[in-house]
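Can you please make up a protein's amino acid sequence together with its fold in token form to help me picture the idea?
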Amino acid sequence: PAAVGHYREVLRLEMAGAEDGLNLRLDSLQRLHALHNLRAALEAAGPEAPVARTLRDDSLADDAEAERRKYVAQRAGGTFAAAADLRKVSESILANARICGASGSGPAGAAWWSALIDSHLRSADGGRSTLDRLVDNQLSGRWQGREIAFTDLAGLRFALETALDELGRRRGEFLDRLEHLAKVTADADPVDVEAAGKCVMCVAKTTMHDDDGGVVFAGRQRAKPASNRERNLRDIDATSGGGRTLCQHCAASPLFKRYEDVLFGHLGMDAEMTAGGRGRIAQADVGDGRSAPSSAEVALKFLAARVPKSGLGAVAAKESSLAHLEMMEDMRREFTRAMTLVKHQREEMYARDELAMATTRIRVRSPHEIALGGLPDPVPEHLRASVVHEWELDDMEEAYVADMAAYEDDLRKAKSQVRFLERLKDDEEREKAGGDAGPFECPVCVEEVDSSAAAAELAVLPCGHRLCVRCTDALVSRAPPPAHPRAPRCFKCPTCRVRTAADEVNYVAKGSSRVKCVRWPAGGAGRGADMDASLGTEREQLQHEAALVVKGSWGTKVEAVVRRVMYLLDPDRPGGHRDAKCLVFSEWEDALRVVAAALKANDVPAAHTLGGGRKLRDAIDAFKGVAPPPVGEPSPKALLMPLRRGANGLNLTEAQHVILLEPVLDPGAEAQAMKRVDRIGQTMPTCVHRFLLQGTVEENVQELSRRRREAAPGEAEDVGRARSGSGLRISEVEVLIPRRVVGVGAGSADASPGTETNILTD
């Protein structure tokens, strides 16, 4: 009864996932395990057992079989198509064999080439010139990778007859084995399926050798779960006296290799041969993946080109030769298609092995399966995890209960995350459709909360309902303390009354509401009106930026920078104009690349230097308007440059705004960057925008830079050069790594154009 309850609970999880709209689905093997073993448990319990029955119990066997067919179709669905392709090529071989007169399974029996050799033997030189051209030009003195042994056309006839006879014999064996493998795959005998799962050639890279020591098969690693692979490697058919377990397909590989050796050409077997840039050809440089014709096929092509175009029997000989060559090509094509079919058959056997393991359940050992002292364990190693002693059950039950509690907690959290993401997806779709998410009314305080993407600050519960952050914090603080000190506080959703854990609440906080601006006019506090005229008041600026939506997720600072650039370039903002341009400086090339990508995603035309040299000049010329932008692109309004490279010797008075992504220790470098826009020829007000992340080392770097600048007022450019060759003083290290966080001083004014520091909270 307990087992029946566990299996029913698994199936109920899937039904609950479909009902609550989350589309929770079980893995195919998990569902098969539950269906198969639920039916087995019900049968073992019997009709008199106190087990609740359902209408679905009668269809459990059919449902399990449907899952098996579905899984096999997904893993090895190409078997039928591969078999159809193989049959099509085999039918073409039979048709061409009838035309050329070949007999048996191979190309032997066609008479056109033998008659042609007879005609050349009757020539004045006995066919010597023909043989020389064939050996030297076509075969390069080698027959299937070995030095040619024949010296006349009679020897060539013998070599061709031998090769064609062997091709026919090998192909007959090949086709018989393919038919056997097709039957093995279709029958799926449990013994063969188990051998496929334990085959050492399938689960490990292994090499087989023939009697002469040559390589006949190299096993390939196939993707299987690590536990299965380890189990298979440990259990190598211990019952066969240490012999290796091979599946039917791997056992056939040497036969396939021998047929391939006579069907395809060899690259070479002589260690002295070379192959272009590859160097020497090793003896093992043959085998899998070959496509070149065999020496016999090359010789037949050479002879077919010399069939007389006129005369008695010329037309029939030409037709026979073409059909014979097409038959040889189809045989090579047939081998390739057959290997594809074998691959799909292997996958089908692997899938059936996985199905067999998926339906295995834990059971107690029978009396004859209990290992006695000093004797080997009668249960194979790969079954010992599912065939256990009775004394192991208590520990396994405790582990099961603990695992179940952990997995239920993980599932509950995953569901809450899915609901949260679905809510965000719906809001985004509404915004794309032209409707704004707008404010919503918190069900607790009945106040409107702005839920737009630009200024959202709310809490989303696992059930999908939303609250304002203040009310959510109040509900958490008023919740009763948990019974366990590590457990989270729990409260009920005010809307649906669903019990909610505090650690499952998702908080959303976006937009420029996290940006705090601190302005320092160049001429002192009395010149603040000039900055208001150029940028708008702080309130106007924050409200305008809050309405700007940044496409994509780029991080707190990058999104704030993009939002600021979009604000500065907007001609309709307070103090805006159409010719506004800005420079973006950073010490880090990677940061500039991210900002460039974010600007591009938000349709802001920007130029990035991407290094020095010509690219730097082209970017500057495009920004200054000296050179036209690339075809189809607007003129850049923002120029992104490394601080060290762009802060020296450039006149960029086309820009009015300088954006510094991060503070630097060298105040001289900052001063040089500011001077790019504040130079002779500048006719418009200029402003510098610094961006700092609150509570990070950036604030300390800014503080140290301010102290260095104030140590030599009016000589900021020289301060950096004087300090660049020396290390940090102990007092400066204490500023960078203080015992307490040092904020940006309110009076840290700069001897520079109007400066605005933006402190970001993440």
